[in-house]
Amino acid sequence: MYRTGDLARWNKDGQVEYIGRTDFQVKVRGFRIELAEVESVLTAHPDVHDAVVVVREDRADDQRLVGYVVPGGKADPGGLDVEALTDAVRGHLPEYMVPSAIVPLGEFPMTPSGKLDRGALPAPGHTEAPAGRSPRNHHEEVLCRLYAELLGVDGIGIDADFFGQGGHSLLATRLVGRIRTELDVDVKVTTVFRNPTVAQLAARIEKLTTSKRPRLRQMNVQENRR
């Protein structure tokens, strides 16, 4: 009835079964995304000859946009500045459309018929985030570990940006839950957005715990008086 781009079929019980899309529009973390729009921004970069963007779920319940690029101009797969390319994409698209990882390739895998073989695109490697400064206190040590575990990196420094390293709102919610469990501190997701680095978030948590201590001491004094 409507040209929505959705692909569906009637089953034997007369119900409509949703199969997928006839185009490359996807829905990730509640946002509808046109993959072609992200690809056009990538290919507009002078160091990129061609680009493909897909949704991967290499870890359960963790869908991420991944961009694959074939460098052009003077760039080569090993020398492409992926961080600068990601910043360029971030300057043109909202955060939810920025790929969590960009993988440079010499060429795209193709099927025998000459079409792009999306299933053969490699998973992003288990990377190590820029080390930066080391943790200076207990809160920073715990946050560095939690950041690394949730972001799927081998190591992380206190200046690493949670969202700059591929984090998103769903992972931020999980981070808040882990902080509550391991540090016994209630942190809001908005606090993570406003304090995305380990150093910033640790400082905020320290303020929250410090402001909590006087109230606890006051309650103990009142109990003793009773």
Overall structural class, as computed from helix and strand content, comes to: alpha+beta
Radius of gyration: 22 Å
Kindly state the mean pLDDT as a whole number? Answer: 81
Low-confidence stretches: none
Biggest sheet statistics? 3 strands, mixed
Number of helices: 6
Distance between the termini: 73 Å
In which order are the strands of the major sheet placed? 5-6-7
**Residue share in β-strands:** 15-25%
Number of strands: 7
Share in helix: 25-40%
What order do the helices and strands follow?
EEEEHEEHEHHHH
Shape: globular
Task: Provide the fold topology.
Layout: E1 6-10, E2 16-21, E3 25-28, E4 31-34, H1 35-43, E5 48-59, E6 62-71, H2 82-90, E7 101-104, H3 138-151, H4 169-183, H5 189-194, H6 198-225
Parallel strand pairs: 6-7
Antiparallel strand pairs: 1-2, 3-4, 5-6
Helix pairs in contact: 3-4, 3-6
Sum up the structure in keywords.
226 residues; alpha+beta; two-stranded antiparallel sheet; 6 helices; globular
Written account of the structure:
The protein has six helices and seven strands; from the N terminus they run ββββαββαβαααα. The chain is of the alpha+beta class and 226 residues long. The strands form three sheets. Strands 5-6-7 form a three-stranded mixed β-sheet, covered by helices on one side. A hairpin with a 2-residue loop joins strand 5 and strand 6. Helix 3 packs antiparallel against helix 4 and helix 3 crosses helix 6. The longest helix is centred in the last third of the chain and has 28 residues. It is globular, with a radius of gyration of 22 Å. The mean pLDDT is 81.
